[in-house]
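Lecture notes, unit on protein representations.

Consider one protein chain, 97 amino acids long.
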Amino acid sequence: MSNKDRKKMWEERVAQWRVSGLSQRAYATEQGFPIRQVGYWVRRLAKSPPMPGLLPVRLAPAAPAPAAISLRNERGWTLSLPGDVPAGWLAELMRAL
């Protein structure tokens, strides 16, 4: 039996022990396992980190960047601003100009 198979088998046994509500000693005796072996696997499996799983990922198309805003004055100057400028700030700027 490979180490991987042995670990999987004991993961199942420890899970069954936890569900049983029995003490480790009572569970080991009932199942015919050496008492120390049950304790060993409970400790060993508590130390090993769980294997990371894969999570579903949904990709969404990126939102298009807002178009730039250009302000032109009759005197000839042009002010270019990014399209995501807050509307309140832009209103204040327009009133100041």
